[in-house]
């Protein structure tokens, strides 16, 4: 985790992208600092990818400005592209070429690339270096994508949904590689819809909903500001009667700072005070038997619940 | 330029490992070249004809005159003569093919020799009579009486001339040609029967100009042009659309690679492939068919110019179409009609006049013609125009490809 803050490497000012009457990016203003891992968290369709693709020069903004490493995206795009690395969402490359050949291709397109073999070693890809890209598992394909993004020795690395579709082990391995990048002098911009991903990796997070930035801060500060001290989660099941559910919700609403009901038949009460949460937890136990209750510390999901009034499905949809 | 070269190497490497691409770009034209060369280069056409000689002597041997006619027919090179047994009466059969297993049968009737001799004598007598009448004043009366008596005796034996019968089946497309050949042989035979060894009028045939093109000579440039068109206008758009769809192109667009470098790398890749595949085709044509095509500097330059033009056209198609299947379809809708109206697989003279006019506007017509002139005929006739035409197209298509290639707003 980066601890020192210096000049912003990316700034956006009222960045906006419209497609007809649809506003994909709604006047986003950000500053991403050198050496941090910055997370853009939001559901599918929130505008995360569109926003970073504008910064990468892959899309033109309808209005607003952005700079990368002090260079304007409208006038200095070629210089910017030499100093950034990108792992796009749904990453793909020449599938009949080997891992080494694909990484070498990108190296040859940059002005001052790193040694290909060093990058392969760094990402533990040496063993698969001579395998064709199409023969790799999803995790190693994604790792190849990161190698291709890093071989140009970028100052800024963009990772768009880097672990979508990976199994838990591959996801964890990818996280471990990403968290080492700031130590190599690389600023990381990460888009994701996984709460645990930003909790694990991000120094700061911008929460994006409907193209609009709802909040920007560190994960602890966001939780502290928007998720309270404790939360009570009531899991309803098939045996829960309507009367019982109504009673549970009513009790929660009497004591909690905010109550959210999700499609997954969960009632979530967020409490600013620990004692109130514990009292309510005991009280809810006395109402019927068709449910279970957890008393847990709040996390980014609660931040999201508070700011977007919804939670996110595993697939990244609002629910 | 370094980036263009590196990307070109990558594209070539990717192409070499793509079995389908290698098959359609190299093996497919080779197979077609070999098949077309064999099909259309089978040597002079021969017409099978059966001959039944019924004019036999008492001991079963052909009479001298009928044997002479059969010999003359056998010597007619386009005819492949097969003599049939004289025991079967073919004049009344309903279906000659069922009866003889042949589509054409020439029947020499019994008494052929005798009739030939009689008719020959009658004609000779007629000539003598005519001559006598012209010179009556110089011949004595008694001599005239003798001559008239002899002519009267000869006329008394007058019968119809000899007839040979050519039987054919209704759907025989070669019947006309066979009839003409037999007719010619019989005419010569008639002259000789009358003692005319040297015809009054003879045709002298001389060959002037260059040797005509053999099938492989004709098809070698045709398949080079077809290869350039198929690769450039059909394969390239599909490959570009595929790279666009799977995100590879987007990945390249966030590197320092510029879009004109992307277009140039593809054009360079196709140019290298075009030269390499052309050399393979030439080598096979030389080894298998003895075609000594020489790809000199001008031919190579024209090949490269055509490749740049048509690959750039393919890049335009690939840049505006998202789906690889649709891209190859649109490419085919452009390339295939161009190939077929441009006379690369058949002579333009065989096409209707309107299409011949249309073909003159097709760059493929001129590309093919130019390559044929330079590689096969060792001529530069009309090549300057072809260079100019293709150069203009190359500039227009290349500019269009760079302008239309999307380096932003990928979807």
TrEMBL record, chain A:
Highest taxon above the source species: Archaea
Keyword Membrane: yes
Pfam families reported in the protein's UniProt record: ABC_tran
Subcellular location: Cell membrane
Positions of the ABC transporter domain: 10-235
Cellular component annotations (GO), alphabetically ordered: plasma membrane
Alphabetized GO MF terms: ATP binding
Protein family (similarity comment): Belongs to the ABC transporter superfamily.
Protein known as: ABC transporter ATP-binding protein
TrEMBL record, chain B:
Membrane-protein topology: Multi-pass membrane protein
InterPro entries registered for this protein in UniProt: ABC-2_transporter_component, ABC2_TM, ABC2_TM_bact-type, ABC_2_transport
Transmembrane segments: 21-41, 218-241, 262-286, 298-321, 328-346, 383-404
GO cellular component terms attached to this protein's record: plasma membrane
Taxonomy, superkingdom: Archaea
Major localisation: membrane
Keyword terms of this UniProt record: Cell membrane, Membrane, Transmembrane, Transmembrane helix, Transport
All copies of domain ABC transmembrane type-2, residue ranges: 183-408
Compartments, as annotated in UniProt: Cell membrane
Signal peptide positions on this chain: none
Family that this chain belongs to: Belongs to the ABC-2 integral membrane protein family.
UniProt-recorded name of the protein: ABC transporter permease
Organism: Halovenus rubra
């Amino acid at each position: 985790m980066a601890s020192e803050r210096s000049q912003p490497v990316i700034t956006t000012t009222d960045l906006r992208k419209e497609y007809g009457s649809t506003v994909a990016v709604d006047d986003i203003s950000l500053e991403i600092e050198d050496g941090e891992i910055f997370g853009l968290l939001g559901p599918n369709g929130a505008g995360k990818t569109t926003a970073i693709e504008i910064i990468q020069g892959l899309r033109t903004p309808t209005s607003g400005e952005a700079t990368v490493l002090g260079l304007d995206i409208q006038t200095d795009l070629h210089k910017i592209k030499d100093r950034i690395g990108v792992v796009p969402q749904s990453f793909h490359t020449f599938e009949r070429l080997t891992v080494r050949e694909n990484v070498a291709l990108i190296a040859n397109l940059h002005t001052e690339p790193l040694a290909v073999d060093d990058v392969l070693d760094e990402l533990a890809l040496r063993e698969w270096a001579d395998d064709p890209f199409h023969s790799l598992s999803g995790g190693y394909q994604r790792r190849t994508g990161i190698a291709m993004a890093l071989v140009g020795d970028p100052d800024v690395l963009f990772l768009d949904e880097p672990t979508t579709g990976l199994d838990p082990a591959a996801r964890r391995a990818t996280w471990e590689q990403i968290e080492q990048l700031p130590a190599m002098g690389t600023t990381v911009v990460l888009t994701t819809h996984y709460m645990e991903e930003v909790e694990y990796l991000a120094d700061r997070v911008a929460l994006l909903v409907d193209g609009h930035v709802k909040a920007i801060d560190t994960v602890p500060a966001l939780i502290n500001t928007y998720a309270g001290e404790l939360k009570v989660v009531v899991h309803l099941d098939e045996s829960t009667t309507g009367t019982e559910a109504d009673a549970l919700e009513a009790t929660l609403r009497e004591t909690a700072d905010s109550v959210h009901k999700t499609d997954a038949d969960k009632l979530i009460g967020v409490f600013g005070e620990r004692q109130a949460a514990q009292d309510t937890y005991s009280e809810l136990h006395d109402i019927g038997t068709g449910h279970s209750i957890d008393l847990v510390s709040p996390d980014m999901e609660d931040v999201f619940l508070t700011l977007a009034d919804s939670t996110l499905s595993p697939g990244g949809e609002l629910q | 330029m370094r980036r263009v070269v590196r990307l070109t190497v990558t594209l070539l490497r990717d192409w070499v490992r793509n079995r389908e691409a290698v098959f359609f770009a190299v093996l497919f034209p080779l197979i077609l070249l070999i098949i077309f060369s064999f099909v259309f280069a089978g040597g002079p056409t021969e017409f099978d004809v059966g001959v039944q000689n019924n004019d036999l002597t008492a001991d079963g041997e052909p009479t001298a005159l009928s044997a002479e006619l059969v010999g003359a027919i056998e010597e007619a090179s386009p005819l492949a003569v097969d003599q049939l047994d004289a025991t079967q009466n073919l004049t009344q059969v309903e279906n000659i093919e069922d009866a003889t297993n042949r589509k054409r049968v020439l029947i020499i009737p019994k008494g052929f020799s005798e009739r030939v001799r009689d008719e020959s004598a009658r004609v000779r007598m007629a000539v003598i009579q005519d001559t006598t009448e012209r010179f009556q004043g110089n011949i004595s009366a008694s001599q005239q009486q003798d001559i008239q008596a002899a002519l009267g005796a000869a006329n008394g034996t007058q019968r119809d001339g000899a007839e040979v019968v050519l039987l054919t089946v209704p759907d025989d497309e070669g019947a006309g040609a066979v009839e003409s050949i037999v007719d010619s042989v019989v005419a010569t035979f008639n002259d000789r029967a009358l003692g005319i060894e040297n015809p009054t009028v003879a045709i002298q045939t001389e060959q002037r100009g260059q040797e005509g093109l053999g099938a492989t000579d004709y098809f070698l440039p045709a398949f080079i042009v077809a290869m350039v068109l198929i690769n450039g206008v059909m394969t390239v758009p599909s490959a570009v659309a595929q790279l666009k769809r799977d995100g590879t192109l987007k990945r390249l667009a966030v590197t320092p690679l510029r879009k004109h470098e992307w277009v140039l790398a593809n054009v360079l890749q196709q140019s290298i492939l075009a030269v390499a595949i052309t050399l393979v085709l030439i080598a096979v044509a030389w080894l298998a068919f003895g075609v000594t095509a020489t790809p000199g500097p001008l031919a190579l330059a024209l090949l490269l110019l055509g490749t740049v033009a048509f690959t750039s056209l393919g890049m335009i198609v690939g840049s505006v179409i998202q789906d690889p299947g649709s891209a190859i379809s649109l490419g085919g809708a452009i390339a295939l009609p161009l190939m077929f109206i441009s006379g690369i697989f058949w002579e333009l003279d065989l096409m209707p006049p309107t299409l011949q006019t249309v073909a003159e506007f097709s760059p493929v017509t001129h590309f093919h013609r130019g390559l044929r002139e330079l590689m096969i005929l060792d001529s530069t006739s009309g090549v300057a125009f072809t260079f100019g035409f293709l150069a203009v197209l190359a500039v227009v298509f290349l500019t269009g490809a760079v302008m239309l290639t999307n380096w932003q707003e990928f979807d």
